[in-house]
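R.M. (postdoc): so does anyone remember the format we settled on? I'll just put the structure tokens first.
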């Protein structure tokens, strides 16, 4: 039973990190398609790859934020004191 509990809690933090990514991405203009002005220039593939790399980096940062330990002052609840 412990392995299922650990698996579900790990999945939960991944879901929270993904929700945080979905919330933050529009604010930092990730995942938005930008139209080219004249149609000239380099193909959009490198731009898409850059956006994907930025999304992965943001997801990694979201996971780190979700899984970070709470500061000592925030861990104790009034019922425990």
């Amino acid at each position: 039973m412990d392995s299922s509990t650990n698996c579900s809690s790990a999945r939960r933090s991944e879901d929270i990190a993904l929700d945080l990514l979905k919330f933050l991405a529009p604010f930092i203009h990730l995942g938005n398609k930008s139209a080219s002005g004249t149609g000239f220039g380099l193909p959009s593939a490198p731009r898409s790859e850059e956006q994907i790399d930025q999304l992965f980096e943001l997801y990694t940062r979201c996971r780190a934020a979700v899984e970070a330990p709470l500061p000592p002052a925030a861990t104790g609840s009034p019922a425990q004191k």
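R.M.: ...and that's the designed sequence above, right after the tokens. Also worth knowing: The radius of gyration is 19 Å. The mean pLDDT is 75.
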